[in-house]
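Hey everyone, long-time lurker, first post.

I ran two proteins through the pipeline my lab uses and got sequence/structure pairs for each. Pasting them in order. The first:
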Amino acid sequence: MLAIIAAVLFFVAFLINAADITTNEIFTSTNVMLLGLTLLALHLAGIGGGWTTRRRRR
């Protein structure tokens, strides 16, 4: 799930950079890209990977 959100943030950062959209200081393409990299790192670390089911052994 975090990897999908990271991909969306990378796409938004690309659009901001490619279209040369002027934004405020917080919502720049670099900051959006860094948020995407943070989410991708969390995904690779195993956080937010999904639900695990625990089975009972008989």
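...and the second, right after it:
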Amino acid sequence: MVPSPVEMFRDLPKKVCPECGEYIEEQAESYMMECDRCLANKEE
């Protein structure tokens, strides 16, 4: 049986920053791979 789209997205694991291991707060239309803190450190 094919799961509903709602169930599929609910069961996805949380996104983790590859730099520091912190969980990333996901937002609609966001394709960030790193957390805000690591992105800010790269800009400095």
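Reply from user beta_strand_b:
Welcome! Quick read of the second one: DSSP finds two helices and no strands in the chain. Helices lie at 5-10, 36-43.
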